[in-house]
Amino acid sequence: MYKLTQHLKRTGLAVSLLLALTSAGHALANEAVAKQLPQGWTPLAPDAGLTLSGKFQQQANTDTAIVVQNGQGGAYGLAVVPGAAADGAASIVKTFKDIKANPPRLSLVQPGSYQPVCHSGESCAPLSIANESIGLCFGEASCEIIYYANGAYHEVYVTD
């Protein structure tokens, strides 16, 4: 019984150390991302669904998408920090207001063909997306895909 207890204690210590190192690494990564954001913008408190990594601009580099807040204007936004300096500076690719009623969540969207929502009542042609993209949903209100093409970020609504 003593050997089993000692083994469990060592295992528990190892797991605790691993969790502490992972949390510290995540905090340091968020700190590095925060330093690259445009002036006045700060990441929201770390929360599941508010930060996302993916190969948005090109397959060679992993970029970071993060929900941010502008302390001066009270606006919120979606920032993308490129994984390589050659891909440009961090930028705010979308802004929005109040998030309390319908909090935003990010998800990774794989390359493929997607059917946009058409508000004109007509049928819209499917959109082909070549790179991983950012799924941005606001609670149960709406979802969109933010994708990179032709040197810029674009958005397409997929639910209303």
Mean pLDDT: 78
The dominant shape is: globular
Distance between the termini: 60 Å
Radius of gyration based on Cα positions? 20 Å
| Total helical elements | 1
- How helical, in percent, are the residues? 10-25%
Count every beta strand, where a strand is a DSSP E run of 2 or more residues: 11
Oligomer: single chain
| Main sheet characteristics | 5 strands, antiparallel
Structural class: alpha+beta
Uncertain segments are: 1-29
Strand content: 35-45%
Overall number of structural domains: 1
Helix/strand order, N-terminal first:
HEEEEEEEEEEE
Signal peptide: 1-29
Keywords: Signal
Q: What is the secondary structure topology, with strand pairs?
A:
Elements: H1 2-36, E1 41-43, E2 51-54, E3 63-70, E4 76-81, E5 91-96, E6 104-109, E7 112-114, E8 127-129, E9 133-138, E10 142-149, E11 152-159
Antiparallel strand pairs: 1-3, 2-3, 3-4, 4-5, 6-9, 7-8, 9-10, 10-11
